[in-house]
Fold:
Amino acid sequence: MGLLDGLMGNASELDIEELASEFEPILANDEEIELGFKLIRDMFIFTNKRMLIVDKQGLTGKKVLYHSVPFKSISHFALESAGHFDMDAELKLWISGTEKPISYELKRGSDVVAIQKTLANCIL
Structure:
């Protein structure tokens, strides 16, 4: 991911094997990582059970908030692909009990089909 992409809030796809190694200590016994993206320092990771939002805080990023969203609590989702004039794709997740969705912008070239399929397989 280039610096400009990171500053613009775009996401880049992460290697699943590296994520599995890094997050193995906090995954459930039968939980597997399916897909992961990084937004500057923060990440959102799709496993076969939940979406894990990793929010690195502070100047050093040593303080980390792990926001776990079980797929059963996602009431619906929307994924907008990039167009000719709109260069970014956007992912929106609505969580039960909240009005506003969790939103992420994905850079052009992000595998929106894989995201759509992962969410559909895990939620539906």
The chain has one domain: 3-123.
